[in-house]
């Protein structure tokens, strides 16, 4: 037995011994017909549909009766059903009717009359149907009709009161019975319309194309999840991603909150694929997340930024006869995917030390796009990965595309017909200086002749470069579009670069 608590809004059916049933939902155990039953008191009732629906939800009790009564049946049907049941008991069981009926509630609302115009029928259907034919059809459907000046006055029967409320509903009934195949086919008038994607929509498509071109497969995960995801991701109690919006009437406990990150569905899919023998996993997802930060409870809506995220596992490149070395993905593998994405979007970006609680310390970073915090990147913490039974390196990133400015139309420049000048430069800086900071400083000082900077070597012998320092080798490419560069022009840019490295980063040129 299960105990349920009732409130004053719920309706019970009772006799002198107490409740027999919850009205319109469940009950009747004490009033069932038994083999020795000789007298039957018949009760036929109707209930307010909204009340039955609320009661069923509150009690968590669904039945055939509740599904029927919550649709709001017509009051007249109770008396009609009782009359039919009585006749069947007399005819089939030899019962004897005791005269007298108690009617609580009386008649239902007065019948509704709807005016049906002949011209309106032709206008909506595109073909004329005579009033006589309309009267014949509606009469067969138990509608009462009376002639009017421009059509018919139609009285709606009680059992159709809920769905036939206006003239268009009557015309639908006429067309349905007369035959939809008899209606003529008329082409709509043509209006020239040219739909275009917005710049933001184009950027989202470009992001998906860039990841697909790098061999990633797109997934579409649930926008709903369970509250336990925050614990599995080891989020701090006051972490913004813990503030998930709860559904008022969830389908189940594991689909009860709106997602605040794409990582959960990506890891779920990675586990699903790995459990089925997938060796290399390269997945991405793009969609909205739902953030409640900043809500004050005064009707303000949550933010719904559009994110794109990716998860990599297994080999960073396909296995070939020339490259069969063992190894898996790491921070730099997923950073390469991120670089391909942001370069396709033509967004200036960099990464700085930092991360989230679910990332491996020392192997994670914050993504800065246009100088603003736009997401995170790194290897998933082993303890977090083990929550999904993933016992190997998992690398991932998540980027807020709405934080990335849409770039203007691409401007193309002609290829310079003049030769490049390339030189290598070894720069000694502190280990606290990132390669990105060094490249930015070199680019700024080398303008306008410096066309490209690439880091191609790393050297950290304390005896040669000093304790706490590192030497980074840069390949510089100089180019002009209107002339061949001279040695003096290149030397001038090199001196400017050396001065900027010393001034901004405290470094020095080791060799050229």
Lay out the secondary structure.
Elements: E1 12-15, E2 18-22, E3 26-27, H1 49-59, H2 64-69, H3 76-93, E4 112-117, H4 118-125, H5 131-140, E5 144-148, E6 151-156, H6 167-178, H7 199-213, E7 217-218, E8 224-225, H8 229-232, E9 257-258, H9 263-275, E10 281-288, E11 306-313, H10 331-344, E12 349-353, E13 359-369, E14 372-380, H11 382-387, E15 395-400, E16 421-430, H12 435-446, E17 450-459, H13 462-465, E18 469-478, H14 487-505, E19 508-511
Parallel strand pairs: 7-10
Antiparallel strand pairs: 1-2, 2-3, 4-6, 5-6, 8-9, 10-11, 11-15, 12-13, 13-14, 14-15, 16-18, 16-19, 17-18
Helix pairs in contact: 7-10, 12-14
Give the structure's gist in a few sentences.
With 512 residues, the protein is of the alpha+beta class. It has 14 helices and 19 strands.
Note down, in words, how this protein is organized:
- With 512 residues, the chain is an alpha+beta fold.
- It has 4 domains: 12-93, Phenylalanyl-trna Synthetase, Chain B, domain 3 (Phenylalanyl-tRNA Synthetase, Chain B, domain 3, 3-Layer(bba) Sandwich); 112-180, Phenylalanyl-tRNA Synthetase, Chain B, domain 1 (2-Layer Sandwich), CATH 3.30.56.10; 199-403, BirA Bifunctional Protein, domain 2; 421-511, Alpha-Beta Plaits (2-Layer Sandwich).
- 30% of the residues lie in helices and 22% in strands.
- The protein has helices at residues 49-59, 64-69, 76-93, 118-125, 131-140, 167-178, 199-213, 229-232, 263-275, 331-344, 382-387, 435-446, 462-465, 487-505; strands at residues 12-15, 18-22, 26-27, 112-117, 144-148, 151-156, 217-218, 224-225, 257-258, 281-288, 306-313, 349-353, 359-369, 372-380, 395-400, 421-430, 450-459, 469-478, 508-511.
- The strands form 5 sheets. A 7-stranded mixed beta sheet has the order 7-10-11-15-14-13-12, with helices on both faces.
- Strand 12 and strand 13 (359-369) form a beta hairpin.
- Helix 12 crosses helix 14.
- The longest helix has 19 residues, at 487-505.
- The chain starts with 11 loop residues before the first strand and ends with a strand.
- The mean pLDDT is 89.
